[in-house]
Amino acid sequence: MSLTQKEKAELFLQQHTADKLLILPNVWDTLSAKLVSTVGFPSLATASIGMALANGYPDGEHIPFKHLTSVVSGITASVDLPVSVDLERGFSENLSELKDNVKKLLDAGAVGLNIEDGVDHGKEITPIAEQCLKIEAIREAGIQYGVPVVINARTDLFFQPQQNDTIDKVIERAKAYRSAGADCFFPILISNYLHIARLVEEADIPVSVILFGMIRDLRKLENLGVARVSVGPALIIQAITKMKNIAEGLLDYNSDELFAQQGVPFEYLSNLI
Length: 273
Prior knowledge:
The protein is α/β, with parallel strands linked by helices. The protein folds into two domains: 5-232, Alpha-Beta Barrel (TIM Barrel), CATH 3.20.20; 234-273, no CATH class. It has helices spanning 5-15, 30-39, 48-54, 65-78, 95-107, 128-145, 166-180, 193-203, 218-224, 234-251, 266-272; strands spanning 22-24, 26-27, 44-46, 83-86, 112-116, 118-119, 124-125, 150-155, 184-187, 208-210, 228-230. The strands form three sheets. It has a six-stranded parallel beta sheet. A three-stranded parallel beta sheet has the order 1-11-10, with no helix packed on it. A two-stranded antiparallel sheet has the order 6-7. Strand 6 and strand 7 (124-125) form a beta hairpin. It is globular, with a radius of gyration of 19 Å.
């Protein structure tokens, strides 16, 4: 029997406090969502870059919000799993409009939302008090809608040149965002296992990280107490890279890349849909 949206939200939150690491390969359309679901992941998440690029827009809230909600509706209708959506900065600085946007995404079937405090990939950082108002507005919108939306509060502090006290500022924001109603804290680009361990210990909120280079050991992240891991745009970048290499090879009359690995059978693709 399918879960209600409220039940999916509650399940998604529980997945952040289980002993097992919640791994979220980020999707961008119905097909990618079906694929990740079929492989066996318990929940799905979008990434703003993937959603934007796949629909012909640059990242940074350039995709029309109505288009975003339409894509989200297709994703949530295609899988019977909790789906979290990257809301970027909220697609509005007005709190009333932000709440309306949250309700539209809940209408589209989402049960989780990312909200970030950086402007233009961390070139500027929203003051803590102002960002807490956004988190409170999202929480209030979820309550009014009747769905306990899972809020993943992202900080972009690690986009900025790092100082000796950067991790202290990150922990300060984690505590403030938790008090404002966030369920999870996402210090994007954190790349030091010692910093992660300290954050998990001191912040008293489930911690989410993105996999890359220096923090790619999933077992170690789980042992450190990280709750949630995502891959951001990595999947769509890998897919585009493969297509680019094949296309460039064909222009040189080289089909090696096209046949470099066995593709999934058409039956598998048909079953996804």
